[in-house]
Amino acid sequence: MIGRIIICCLLCSLNAAAQETTDSVSTKEDKPSLMVRLHQLQQYLDDKAKAKVDPHYIEVPEKPWRVILRYKENVVDVDYSQSLDLPQTNEHSDWNLSFEPPVASSVGFWVGYRGTGFSYSKSLTKNAGRYYSISSTGAKYGFNFRLRRFNTSDAELSSTDYENGQPTGVPYDTVVSMPSPVWIRSVYINGYYVFNGRRYSQAAAYSQSVIQRRSAGSLLLGATWYQSSFDYDDIQNGVYMIIGHGIYRAKVHQANLGIGYGYNWVPLRGLVVNAMVMPTISVYNRVKTYKYETNYDLSPKDPVDDYGNWDPETGKWANGKTHKPLLMAVEKKVASQFDYWEIDPEVDYSMLRFNLDLRLGIAYNWSDYFFGIQAQFNNFNYKTDECKVNIYDAYARVSFGVRL
Fold it and tell me: Of 182, 212, 190, whose CA–CA distance to 200 is shortest?
């Protein structure tokens, strides 16, 4: 009897263990694998992308991955303008320094899923500075980031002189070499919202994440953050500092808002031509200028140089004057007693600066391949009571890609 009870207990234990094993195997089989989860996530993203657009106007390709080869050229032009007044002689001069580094050419690639991805490019141009960019687009939004940094000694100087308010002679224009390089840096961050995102897509022309099937347009709301610096603080550029009211560095921080319009024209299947224009107004504009004070100024040249030696302790020349005419130093080609020192920087706030964002894009899609040409132009400007800076930044890009 006892033996039968023991056998029954063993059988029950074995059955329970077998059932537990079966349940464990069943649980493991029911738990989705990593590949299944990735597929589910991809399906969710694809369904979400398709749900945001009108399929009669915008097609979301079935193949979500893209590999794009790109060739790009970027151009920057900086104009630095100032005005000089000589009240003693009733003379006035407007002058402008223009800096333009070599065209920055680069080749690279972009790899990504839908509107998000990674890009890398290699510069093909020497002495063009450094240029970085990041961009992302979606059905109703777009984002751009650009960073440019370069230095140059080559400049074009132009000036016009006036006497008693009337031009004298002909405007002066020549190429000059700065004694020490000028450094220019700029950061551009832009985002925009598309009101008619169901029927109009910027991405169709600029990143080809979707395909525009019918012509459509939309109002766009844009916001831009821009900051830059203009720096030639090496004292070898002292002459330019003196005639530039002592300024050796200017920094600007600018926030802009704008309303623009974009239009996608589809003349035939697979081809889209985009044009977008967005004027912006700055709602925050802060310019900080750093200055040197010197013992030379722009007063008329004295007939006799009786200034003697400069005394940095008293801040005066031997004859008691605080400044010596710059023309005397220029005439002798030397300023052995040239002295300078930093003074407190000045901060200027202003509103309603007008900037411009222009874009043009062309794309053609066939099978799983596409080809595109894109261009963008931006203009930024800022000024103080003493100087004005205009920066023109533009690029053109050719791309060829495949969907995977």
Answer: 212
Cα separation, 28 vs 381, in Å, equals: 64
pTM: 0.76
Tokens 């953050």 appear where?
225
Burial class (CB in 10 A: 0-12, 13-18, 19+), 395: buried
pLDDT band at 366 (very low <50, low <70, confident <90, very high): very high
Q: What is the pLDDT of residues 120-152, one digit of tens each?
A: 888 888 878 887 888 887 778 888 888 888 888
Contact (CB, 8 A) for 330 and 253 = no
Structure tokens at 106: 């680069």
Question: Residue 28: its pLDDT value, please?
Answer: 46
Alpha-carbon gap, residue 397 to 106, rounded angstroms: 10
Residues facing 277 on adjacent strands: 261, 358
Model pLDDT, residue 10: 40
Handedness of CA 360, 68, 113, 367 (dihedral sign): positive
Cβ atoms of 242 and 188 closer than 8 Å: no
Alpha carbons 30 and 87: distance in angstroms, whole number? 90
CA distances from 86 to 79, 94, 280, 295 (A): 23, 12, 37, 17
276 touches 142 (CB < 8 A): no
- Can you tell me the distance from the alpha carbon of 234 to that of 181, in angstroms, rounded to the nearest whole number? 8
Write the single-letter amino acid at 68.
I
Alpha helices in 31-166 (DSSP H): 34-51
pLDDT score for 18? 46
**Alpha carbons 151 and 127: distance in angstroms, whole number:** 8
β-pair type (324-325, 296-297): parallel
> Which DSSP symbol is given to 319?
T
